[in-house]
Amino acid sequence: MNEATLRPYVEAHVDALKSNDVAALTEDFAADLRPQLPAVIASLPTPLPLTDAEILSIEAGDEVSVVHNRLVGGDGNAFTMRSEWRLLDGRPRITAGAPA
């Protein structure tokens, strides 16, 4: 997957993070990860809702692409989230993620 394919999805993901659009965020994840989202959210180092989000880097790869986003929580603390994206079901989806 190249960056030109991935970038619009990552930008939409960041927009959904900033607007706390849970439905859009859920759709960005691989189907098998969706049931785990409450646990992932609970493990974040800052409370929700997020007040800001931005793309730090996109490292496009053939099979797996790695994205780093800077997220700012409701308490004003920022952290970096690392996510892995793969092409699934006809579009890029998050297949793994954790605070970096």
UniProtKB/TrEMBL annotation:
Protein known as: Nuclear transport factor 2 family protein
Protein species of origin: Paractinoplanes ovalisporus
